[in-house]
Automatic annotation (TrEMBL):
Family: Belongs to the LysR transcriptional regulatory family.
Protein's organism: Rhodovarius crocodyli
Domain HTH lysR-type residue range list: 2-59
Pfam families to which the protein is assigned, alphabetical: HTH_1 (PF00126), LysR_substrate (PF03466)
InterPro entries named among the record's database cross-references: HTH-type_LysR_regulators (IPR050950), LysR_HTH_N (IPR000847), LysR_subst-bd (IPR005119), WH-like_DNA-bd_sf (IPR036388), WH_DNA-bd_sf (IPR036390)
GO cellular component: cytosol
UniProt KW keywords: DNA-binding, Transcription, Transcription regulation
Name the record gives this protein: LysR family transcriptional regulator
Single annotated GO MF: DNA binding
Length: 316
């Protein structure tokens, strides 16, 4: 009966075209590889490769084995990885890079829920600009990135799962002049200092720029945006102490000390639409898969809270 090492050797020879290169990749000698394949051929009562000076050509029997070999090897690697995780103790880590909006909207709630279920797994989470989060993913520094796809130029080689969008809410301090308006327009809002991230999506940035032009007649704050910083909770700290405005997600408003008011304003463009990104070529660990499930659940819960907190929001 074929074992896993037999499949790995057969696949390596077929991939590299000859025994010498395959032996080098497998870390064995060429004579040892030849003997092992000859033993398999004797067991199967037929040749796996047609040898020649040009290399090794798979036979029909070999091609039949190769048709199933990748999926079998992938399942075995996953099984070994899961068994290793099960046997290992504390110290395992899942690294995640995220933009500012998903960091506080879904990443932190997901991390808290995951930590209750998997206390042995350490989570390392960083707030990064959208492109830098993806760059860290490509470099292998993190296993998961939460980023806005419209802000990332090169998506090749990535496995991308878009998440349902969250409405952005205009937060101001208690007693702010804008609260006197029943339904303020964006140009009226942008007459006041704007606090935001340095990495706005293209659509969001375009809309703000156009509305800013309309706000000129109202003598808006000269700097636009007035302040750019991370994280989102810091924006609310600025908003509480000034006439500044910040567009935030509903979960940020539930944090202790938020103490801000929300304007009755909504735009279909003012939404944050992050995606879960991973390297398509990298098989994820079982725990990473569980953490992604926690991210999906946190995203759904955050959206439900937004509609319950602000029933006037359009849910389309």
């Amino acid at each position: 009966m074929l074992d896993i090492r037999d499949l790995q050797r057969i696949q390596a020879i077929a991939t590299h075209g000859n025994f010498t290169r395959a032996a080098r990749v497998l870390g064995v000698t060429q004579p040892a590889l030849t003997r092992s394949i000859s033993a398999v051929e004797a067991m199967l009562r037929g040749p796996l490769f047609l040898r020649s000076r040009q290399g090794a050509e798979p036979t029909d029997m070999c091609r039949m084995i190769l048709a199933d070999a990748p999926s079998i090897l992938e399942r075995m690697e996953a099984l070994q990885r899961n068994l290793s995780e099960l046997r290992s103790g504390p110290g395992q880590e899942i690294a995640v890079a995220s933009g500012p909006y998903p960091f506080e909207t879904i990443l932190l709630p997901a991390a808290i829920a995951f930590g209750r279920e998997q206390p042995r797994i350490r989570l390392r989470m960083e707030i990064q600009p959208w492109p830098r989060a993806v760059a860290q993913l490509r470099a292998g520094l993190v296993e998961i990135a939460l980023a806005n796809t419209t802000s990332v130029v090169d998506l090749a080689g990535l496995s991308i799962e878009p998440l349902p969008a969250h409405p952005m809410l205009a937060a101001v301090r208690a007693g702010h002049p804008l609260l006197r308006l029943k339904r303020p327009e964006l140009s009226q809002i942008l007459a006041y200092p704007l606090v935001t991230t340095a990495n706005l999506s293209a659509n969001f940035s375009r809309m703000l720029t156009e509305a800013r032009a309309e706000a000129r007649a109202r003598r808006p704050h000269p700097a636009f945006p007035a302040m750019m910083l991370e994280p989102m909770s810091a924006w609310l700290s600025v908003v509480r102490r000034s006439d500044a405005v910040a567009f935030v997600t509903a979960p940020a408003l539930e944090e202790p000390g938020a103490q801000v008011e929300v304007l009755r304003f909504q735009s279909p463009v003012l939404r944050t639409s992050p995606a879960i990104m991973r390297l398509a070529s990298r098989a994820g660990s079982r725990h990473a898969g569980q953490f992604i499930e926690a991210l999906r659940a946190a995203n759904a819960q955050a959206r439900e809270r937004a509609w319950s907190m602000f029933p006037w929001l359009d849910q389309r």
